[in-house]
Design goal:
- The structure holds two protein chains of two kinds.
- Among the domains of chain A are: 232 residues, Cobalamin-binding domain (Rossmann fold), CATH 3.40.50; 140 residues, 2-Layer Sandwich (Transcription Regulator spoIIAA), CATH 3.30.750.
- Chain A is an alpha/beta fold.
- The longest helix of chain A has 22 residues.
- The model of chain A has no long low-confidence stretch (mean pLDDT 95).
- By secondary structure, chain B is an alpha+beta fold.
- Chain B has two domains: 103 residues, Alpha-Beta Plaits; 112 residues, Alpha-Beta Plaits (2-Layer Sandwich).
- In chain B, the strands form two sheets. In chain B, strands 1, 2, 3, 4, 5, 8, 9, 10 and 11 form a nine-stranded mixed β-sheet that branches. Chain B has a two-stranded antiparallel sheet with strand order 6-7.
- The longest helix of chain B has 16 residues.
- Chain B is elongated.
- The chains are: A alpha/beta, B alpha+beta.
- The interface between A and B is medium-sized, with 30 and 31 residues.
């Protein structure tokens, strides 16, 4: 327990590997606090490559929130690429943090943020490199408490053998509560050992400790019951919700890497939660209710962040940014503020709406006008009713045409395939749509060089959504539909050459499906895949479908279930789902009704503008929708 | 005709500044692109009034001169920037230095002297110092002598098109060996050119001629860059700019 720097031992290895800069730390706004001064020490991990993990907002927020506490310190660690991992094993250098280059093994808590389930093998790799026992039951008082967070933590059952606990929902306040519990337990001389610590953590709101819940299975292979094994832990674990985002203006000092990362911009979260009710969208379901940051709160975060980072682009993030009640005013006033500074503002992919083109025009006034991205998600009007993301074909073509007419040359359209009830015809409509968009765009802009990129991936049903009962489409179905789509787009070369098609084949989606809706039995598959060399499963050059299917077949056979059972099988209404004891606030009966309505192609309107549709979140969680407008406005910044 | 953005063109460059900076410590692992990104962001944080190129994707006016390779430290990296409002070079140096990570130090900033020509034309040679942990002077000295006595030393160099054999000898204008705290140090003066010969290639050449095999990764520092004169010394590339400035100030004082 020294917290000494491993850098002198690491440095000779860095001369022998690719992109060594990702391991040296020292990013702008990073910090290294004295080891001895902190009662509780957190290692925060994003289980993917540095270039993907560094920009992650969740990790950045918790890093800063924890480091602001006088009694805590937090450092970051990322998945190590195989070239360095091999050298580390040869030279006995353990998994380290990039800030102080301290051994992860020496920290009190290892927090791992799972944005995607495909990071699970990287957790095992990091635990092994760190010298922390893979299985939670084999750890003792001296090992860090391994805590999972992020959206995937709403069903942590597949990794329940490897994590000590999972935090459901917003982390800002939860990490403080966990720190308090660990600090008290340590200062009292670790009474009752690790079991007592975990029992205390299990009583913190939003913290789930899998070992205190037993799972039994019925003869059909499905879960018979999940029961708690101690009466001092909750029967159902609820999620955490931060209610006033203006009180949590993090990251205040965003990290700026020297290395290239996947997001070369600063991000400001303008609201959290979404009630649009897109039925495929786990993020929209589990982050309710909508909580807006105010226009003035956003204005000061943009200002402080730009000064602290020197970025030239700011992304205004949320699940559906154009829905912010003050977005029009915000776009105009931010563009006014940064007039003449070569600072550009951008929105992530938006709903298909002509208003969004106006917004994008306003936001790009000062800087680079890159492409515009819309997300219709479904190819046909019918399937868009099924997923509750209704937009007519005419509106879609009109919106994209407006973008071309306004000088945007490149429009990207996001779609999914393999959605419930989908047929080949639904997917083929994407091609018709793209062709019409290009025809209308050429006409509207008077230019031949307008381009449209269709980006499409296989749909993966997720827990806590109306599609949690759905049969996932097989990899063959996905690949077939992608193939006929490509043929349809290329049928007329004069138009097809203006249309780009980006897609992911169906296989990784099947594995993501296994891990998303898996139960505790899937843990053996993950461990087997990692032992066979699996890691970086989100990267096509590392992902091996055969390794996963072989492991799934052999490890699941003793339980009488298989890969298909977890993926392409439709669930019945009363099946006990592995995450039923984890409460996102959504009423299971409401979810089922919404699933039935999806099959019947019935839409649900957004509860921000129409009466409550009784999803259950607000009453269950004691929360409420928080939207403006506030009536305030952004004053020009004084010139320094 | 190519489309142009609406509105007036960006303000023109009114002053060019030439900067020498160092990359040290952990940041020797930064690549040229990493440093370029970092420098551009630091210029924004330091509120340097950069001049921008015109067009739909305006870029700040920055020209980079040949960068030290990833893994090598340097005390002599050069960059030239164009600004749209005249700046005091020393104030800019301090502001930029404060905005950069501690392992990047802005050592000099001078105004480009009018009529002095381009900075690139004043740099054709690098002076390297390479620490060789685990190697003694007694091992290094004869290897260097053997290398200098050869006319052709072929080493395999990794290029975009795979391994390629090059002769590492002609680019080396001078080399010597010394020792500090039991660690041998190679001093080498290398002409920049194509194919580029870097410290790694010189070390590979020492392996080729004398079977010198450092047990630990060597640590290279570029100590200086400039134009090699007939006496074998490397001239300060910012010298001509300083001379113009001194002359101006002299004339000013005379008035």
């Amino acid at each position: 327990m020294t917290g000494e720097s491993l850098y002198p031992r690491l440095e000779p290895l860095l001369a022998q590997i690719q992109k060594p800069i990702q391991y040296v730390g020292g990013e702008l706004n990073s910090q290294v606090k004295p080891w001895e001064d902190a009662a509780v020490r957190w290692a925060l991990m994003y289980p993917d490559a540095y270039e993907v993990g560094l920009p992650n907002q969740g990790l950045m927020i918790l890093y800063e929130v924890l480091n602001e506490r006088g009694d805590a310190l937090a450092e970051r660690t990322y998945a190590v690429w195989p070239d360095l991992a091999g050298l580390m094993r040869q030279n006995g250098v353990p998994q380290f943090t990039v800030d102080g280059h301290r051994a992860v093994r020496d920290f009190d808590v290892l927090g791992v943020s799972f944005a995607t389930e495909l990071g699970y093998t990287n957790l095992l790799e990091a635990l092994d490199l760190a010298g922390i026992p893979l299985h939670a039951v084999d750890r003792d008082d001296t090992h860090p408490v391994v805590v999972a967070g992020g959206h995937a933590a709403f069903n942590p059952e597949p990794v329940s053998d490897f994590v000590d606990c999972a935090v459901l929902g917003d982390g800002e306040q939860a990490v403080g509560d966990i720190t308090d519990v660990v600090a008290a337990w340590k200062s009292q001389g670790r009474p009752g050992g690790r079991t007592e610590l975990l029992a205390r953590l299990a009583r913190v709101e939003g913290v789930y400790v899998p070992r205190f819940y037993a799972v039994s299975y019925g003869p059909d292979g499905a879960i018979a019951a999940v029961t708690r094994t101690r009466d001092d832990v909750p029967v159902k674990v609820g999620k955490r919700t931060v209610m006033d985002l203006d009180e949590w203006p993090y990251p205040k000092q965003p990290l700026v890497p020297l290395a290239e990362s996947v997001h070369e911009r600063m991000s400001v979260e303008i609201f959290r939660g979404c009630t649009r009710g897109c039925r495929f969208c786990q993020a929209g379901m589990i982050t309710r209710p909508v909580r807006e940051r105010t226009i003035t709160g956003i204005g000061s975060m943009v200002d402080a962040g730009l000064k602290a980072t020197g970025y030239e682009e700011v992304g205004l993030l949320s699940l559906s940014s154009a829905d912010h009640s003050e977005i029009g005013q915000l776009a105009k006033e931010l563009a006014d503020r940064y007039e003449g500074t070569n600072t550009s503002l951008s929105l992530p992919s938006t709903r298909v709406d002509a208003f969004n083109v106006t917004l994008a025009n306003e936001l790009s006034r000062n800087g680079r006008r890159s492409g515009l991205t819309f997300a219709p998600e479904g190819g046909s009007e019918r399937i868009r009713r099924v997923i509750n993301k209704t937009v007519s074909k005419e509106d879609l073509v009109r919106t994209v045409t407006t973008a071309y007419a306004n000088g945007w040359r490149q429009v990207k359209l996001y779609f999914m395939c393999g959605l419930p009830t989908e047929t080949d015809e639904d997917v083929l409509e994407i091609a018709e749509l793209a062709v019409e968009v290009i025809r209308a765009g050429r006409e509207a802009s008077g230019q031949k060089d307008v381009r449209c990129t269709v980006s499409i991936g296989g749909f993966v049903p997720k827990p806590h959504t109306p599609f949690q009962w759905a049969a996932q489409a097989s990899a063959e179905t996905i690949d077939h539909r992608l193939r006929i789509l490509r043929q349809a787009i290329n049928a007329d070369r004069r138009i097809g050459k203006s249309i780009g098609l980006r897609y992911h084949d169906g296989k990784p989606g099947v594995i993501e499906g296994l891990l998303s809706r898996g139960d505790r039995r899937v843990g053996r598959v993950i461990e087997r895949v990692w032992r066979d060399g699996g890691k970086f499963d989100g990267w096509s050059e590392h992902f091996s479908y055969d390794r996963w299917t072989t492991a799934a077949q052999e490890e699941l056979a003793p339980f009488g279930v298989d890969l298909d059972w977890f993926t392409t099988r439709e669930r019945t209404e009363h099946e006990v789902l592995p995450w039923d004891h984890l409460d996102s606030g959504l009423d299971k009966e409401w979810l089922w009704e919404d699933w039935q309505e999806a099959i019947n192609e019935e839409e649900v309107a957004d509860c921000r503008w129409t009466p409550c549709y009784d999803c259950g979140v607000c009453p269950t969680m004691g929360t409420e929708i928080q939207v403006g407008p506030t009536g305030r406005s952004l004053i020009p910044l004084t010139v320094v | 005709m190519a489309r142009q953005p609406e509105g007036p063109p960006p303000p023109p460059t009114v002053q060019k500044l030439r900067i020498r900076y160092a990359k040290r410590g952990r940041l020797r692992f930064a690549s040229h692109r990493d440093l370029a990104r970092t420098l551009e962001r630091a210029l924004r944080r330091a509120q340097v009034p950069m001049a921008f190129s015109a067009g739909f994707s305006p870029h700040p006016k920055i020209s980079y001169l040949g960068a030290a390779p990833t893994g090598a430290a340097s005390e002599a990296e050069y960059v030239e920037i164009g600004v749209s409002v005249r700046c005091d070079p020393e104030a800019l140096r301090l502001a930029l230095d404060a905005a950069l990570p501690v392992d990047v130090a802005v050592l000099e900033c001078v105004e480009a002297g009018e009529g002095t020509g381009s900075l690139a034309d004043r740099i054709d040679t690098s002076v390297w110092r390479v620490e060789l942990p685990g190697v003694t002077l007694a091992e290094l000295q004869p290897a260097v002598e053997k290398f200098l006595a050869s006319d052709v030393v072929t080493v395999a160099k990794r290029t975009k098109n795979g391994l390629k054999d090059i002769n590492a000898r002609p680019a080396v204008a001078g080399a010597s060996a010394s020792e500090e705290a039991g660690c041998a140090i190679l001093h080498v003066v290398v002409r920049q050119g194509t194919p580029a010969v870097r410290p790694d290639d010189v070390l590979a050449a020492l392996t080729a001629v004398a079977d010198l095999r450092p047990p630990l990764p060597p640590r290279a520092v570029r100590e200086a860059q400039g134009r090699l004169d007939d006496n074998g010394t490397v001239a300060d590339p910012l010298g001509p700019d300083r001379a113009v400035r001194a002359r101006c100030q002299g004339e000013h004082a005379a008035v």
